[in-house]
Amino acid sequence: MTVPVPAPDLATPTTTDPGGDPDPTAGPDLAADLAGERAHLTASRAALRRMREHAEALFRAGQEVAGDAYTAETLGSTLSRRVAELADDPNTPLFFGRLDFADGDYHIGRRHVSDEVGEPMVLDWRAPISRSFYRASARDPQGVRTRRRFGFQTGELTSFEDEHLDRGEEYGTTSRILTAEIERPRVGPMRDIVATIQPEQDELVRADLADSICVQGAPGTGKTAVGLHRAAYLLYLHRERLRRSGVLVVGPNRAFLSYISAVLPALGEVEVTQSTVEDLVTSATYRPDGTATGTALVVRGTDPPETSVMKHDPRMADVLRRGLEGLIREPEDPIMVSDGSYRWRITAEALRRVVAEARREELPYGTGRERVRTRVVGLLQRQAEARRGDSPGDTWLRRMGRSAPVTGFLDRCWPAVTPAGLLHRLLSDPRVLAEAADGLLTDAEQAVLVWPKPPRTPKAAKWSAADAVLVDEAAGLIERLPSFGHVVVDEAQDLSPMQCRAIARRSEHGSLTLLGDLAQGTAPWAATDWRESLRHLGKPDASVVPLTMGFRVPAVVVAFANRLLPALAVDVPPAESLRRDGALDVRTVADLTVATVAEVRAALAYDGSVAVIAADNDVDPLRAALAEAGVPTATADQVDAGTRVSVVPATLVKGLEYDHVIVAEPARIVAAEPRGLHRLYVVLTRAVSRLAVLHTAPLPAPLG
Ligand SMILES: Nc1ncnc2c1ncn2[C@@H]1O[C@H](COP(=O)(O)OP(=O)(O)OP(=O)(O)O)[C@@H](O)[C@H]1O
Predict the structure, then answer these.
(1) Residue 472: its pLDDT value, please?
(2) Residue 424: half-sphere exposure toward Cβ, Cα within 13 Å
(3) What Å distances lie between residue 599 and 118, 616, 690, 693, CA to CA?
(4) Given ligand 1 and candidates 552, 652, 654, which is best to mutate, with the most ligand atoms within 8 Å of its CB?
(5) In terms of CB atoms within 10 Å, which of 60, 302, 328, 574 comes out highest?
């Protein structure tokens, strides 16, 4: 049975079956039921407030009683995090569902709430019992008699819907609560989906921490939602371990990150690192413990397209490795070290053995250099012991290690180098590059890499974004990076092999959730086969799981966008849509600007967000035309600005969604870049309710 959402009259709710037929027998009992649930909500809110006040009191007391600054800091950050986790969002109820078992019932919500004696009032959605809320079915009730879902408006319960699983009753995707959630107008940043996670999504969300998975999903199938909820789930289950190592979410750009940034805090998870790949490798991103994630490099330059493609090629990893190995030289001379009245001598042969042994160990280059230093000092120590009859102490060992002959030998045979220094060497001198790239890159390929006017020093270089990834690769060859415990990568189809390797270095000892859609690949190096990306990511055995049920784009719009699929040269299952509502309007217009302004005005008559999406070069004129017409507009990353209309360049819209999308001149979007049809596919699949396609030029062939 279902109480309609929103309930038209809260005092006397009517029940309907999912098809909408009223059940005349059910009225007063249901009103009492709803009143009982509301009372439980009020009591739960009070209990959460108490929990929060308790945490705040501990926080204040902790500041006063902590014995030293370190304890105060650790205790303080633990407790302030706890206070943040216990925040109550007045716009959503504390629970969204209830499970009735033979021996009692449980309310399921965003976080755990218990009463004064510790009895649970609301169970966290990630708790083991809560699993049945998402997975139980009429065929496999898992002990659940009744599953109840609640409808709500701004924090108040307005209705509920019961499935008597023990009587074989189940709504699946016809649930009215689910339908209402999917069809609600979108405003502001992305929201969590805890109340309506679908069984196939839940399987991915609750996959083991040890499992790396790759989700191939058509637009709007909930990939981003699944990835974020998996992060929250893993943090709940492995709190201490992941708090130490950290959880990282990687997204395509800052606009996307600001769109998704509210989801995890709403689920009580405030310590997840969110970053673009570029910020990750240039150290604009920090781990929860405050350490930078990459080498500090300022990106000030750009590359011609062919240079950029070359720099993202996986063969560059070998070029860098060989460039580094090329710095190591065979020792040719012995060294003599003065030590007071003694002089120690190490033969060239002994030095050669030390270097050869360190090379065989395949350590990171910087560690290898220190290993060689330690072994040379060891040889000196043995001589000293034999001659002096005692064992020299640590100060002596350090002094020998820093002595001019030892340092001089190291600088000749295993010289120190910075990551940027290595790349600077390779890109500045065609002969150095040729030595490292011999047999790997053709002469022509090498030629596009070398700087026409080499900067004098690494500091003076105008590094490009692609250089930053190469410098990061070099950093990984020189020193090992700490690994995150779990990494979620969204829009992963656009990662180059070298970017995949940058992420692999940060997830070497952790697991990965890779999310993407090969059909939405717009980068020149976009993936065409997930196996290859997974190989570069260091997780070749991860399973690739499809998601095909779309929750965003209405069926009529999906059918239109799917016409592009055959032209995209990728093997992906086509999207289906849960949404039967929605509208598509494809129109030839005489004046694009006039028509766009008129369409925006018409869209404002509906609820929800409106986006005009156009080729990047057309954005400013359209924005100006709307401003002139008195329509204020926001940019893609101003998700909280409260402005309903955004004008968004086609290249920035990936991962975002708007109720009403107006696509201005698709042919220009396609013409703007080599993978323009893929870009258009992304653009056409942003609409939640209505899509208007306005064009003066003919539509691109597959749509015409
Ligand atoms: N189980 C669900 N219940 C309610 N809404 C859902 C569910 N799954 C996904 N959605 C909603 O569908 C929309 C699309 O989800 P999401 O952005 O995660 O899809 P995606 O697969 O990442 O899309 P894209 O390929 O365009 O990046 C979002 O508004 C999301 O909240």
Answers:
(1) 95
(2) 16
(3) 56, 20, 11, 10
(4) 552
(5) 328
What is the identity of the amino acid at 221?
T
Return the HEC string of 487-508. Answer: EEECCHHHCCHHHHHHHHHHCC
Instruction: Give me the pLDDT at residue 641, please.
Output: 63
Write phi, then psi, for 113 (nearest 5 degrees): -130, 130
Residue 604 tokens read as: 């404002």
What is the biggest distance separating any 2 CA atoms in the chain, rounded to whole angstroms?
107
Retrieve residue 175's tokens: 């649930």
Q: What are phi and psi of 337, to 5 degrees?
A: -120, 125
24 pLDDT above the threshold of 50? no
Q: Please answer whether residues 613 and 636 qualify as being in contact, where contact means their C-beta atoms are separated by less than 8 angstroms.
A: no
Asked, as a colleague might, if the bond just before 6 is cis with ω within 30 of 0, I would say yes
Q: Six-digit token pair at 523?
A: 């980068």
Annotated ligand binding at 35? The verdict is no
Cβ atoms of residues 195 and 149 within 8 Å: yes
Beta bridge partners of 687: 658
Which pLDDT value is given to residue 131? 96
Predicted-complex ipTM score: 0.99
C-alpha of residue 553 to centroid of ligand 1, in Å: 9
Query: Is the peptide bond between 674 and the residue preceding it cis, with omega within 30 degrees of 0?
Result: no
Report CA Rg, the chain. Answer: 30
Q: Whose CA is nearest to atom 30 of ligand 1?
A: 222
CA distance 270 to 261: 10
Scanning the structure block, which residue is given the tokens 């679908």?
198
Average pLDDT over residues 103-128: 93
- Give the Å distance between the CA of 677 and the centre of ligand 1: 22
Range with top average pLDDT, 77-81, 153-157, 638-642: 153-157
Is 299 exposed, middle or buried, given 0-12, 13-18 or 19+ CB atoms closer than 10 A? middle
Residue closest to 554 by CA, chosen among 323, 263, 297, 220: 220
- pLDDT 10s digits, 194-238: 999 999 999 999 999 999 999 999 999 999 999 999 999 999 999
The structure tokens listed for 320 are 């860098």
- What is the pLDDT, as a whole number, of residue 447? 97
**If 0-12 CB within 10 Å is exposed, 13-18 middle and 19+ buried, where does residue 131 land?**
middle
Q: How far is CA 588 from CA 92, 200, 287, 453, 671, in A?
A: 43, 41, 50, 50, 18
Please tell me if the CB atom of residue 647 comes closer than 6 angstroms to any atom of ligand 1: no
Q: Is 85 in the pocket of ligand 1 (CB under 6 A)?
A: no
Q: Tell me the angle at which helices 465-478 and 497-506 cross, rounded to the nearest 10 degrees.
A: 40
| 62-89 pLDDT tens trace | 666 656 666 666 666 666 666 666 777 7
**Which pTM was predicted?**
0.89
- In this predicted model, what pLDDT tens digit does every residue of 39-55 receive, in sequence order? 999 999 999 999 888 88
Q: 666, 553, 650, 648: which is closest to 610 by C-alpha?
A: 648
153 — pLDDT class (breaks 50, 70, 90): confident
How many helices (H) and strands (E) in the chain? 27, 23
510 dihedral zone (left: phi>0; alpha: psi -120 to 50; beta):
beta
